[in-house]
Amino acid sequence: MTLYHRTRTLLTSDDGMSTVEYAMGSLAAAALAAVLYAVVNAQGVVDAIESIITDALSSAP
Question: Of 4, 12, 43, 45, whose CB count within 10 A is highest?
Answer without folding.
Answer: 45
